[in-house]
Amino acid sequence: MNIIILGPQGSGKGTQANLLAQKKELFHLETGKILRGLAGQKTILGEKIADFQRQGKLVPNEITIEALKSFLTEENFKKGILFDGFPRNLVQAELLIKELAKYHGVIDKVIFLKISFEESLRRLLARRNCPVCGRSYNLVTLPPKNGEVCDDCGVQLIARKDENEEAIKQRLAAYQKETVPLIDYYRQKNLLLEINGERPIDVIHQDILEKIG
Ligand code: AMP
To answer: What is the mean pLDDT of the chain?
Structure first.
């Protein structure tokens, strides 16, 4: 089973994708993370990617697709892939159909996590990560036990480079312009499952499991 999870930044895509991938034993393809990994390398490509990410802009399609190619393998398609953060525009969506066709695969379902613009902004500004173990927190929806300190490592949490107000607004604008058209695109293909993302994590997870069957 190949599944796409769509939704604005802060909708809980990553959290729900983690839970679902574990439950259904799917390969979790986290585009933002893969690109951040490349951006952390001191290469010309890495610096280019870092620049787009810092500004909250989409990385150009050619670079994104090249970065993902090594994960679009027969082995991963056999297992089933959960696409988290890809596709983010129509060009990427069409390309994905072609890649899947190579292995006689299709997209089975598209989960759309729906939250308001205001809620998205509120959650993104509250996101924190542990600089040591990478664990993610949200001061609103998933807070650490004490202040802004990692439960596991006891170190001060930090915000991602693209999680300042300006970059967040840019990312949400990119989502509106480039990614929102995918909602209708998949609705017309009868693949879209709309999920209310403004509920507790476990309630949303159960809802997703029921809807994908
Ligand atoms: P995310 O962690 O999913 O919020 O992604 C962080 C950043 O990675 C985005 O703001 C983009 O700069 C880049 N990115 C992630 N996925 C894509 C994609 N499918 N196409 C282009 N850029 C992407």
So the answer is: 94
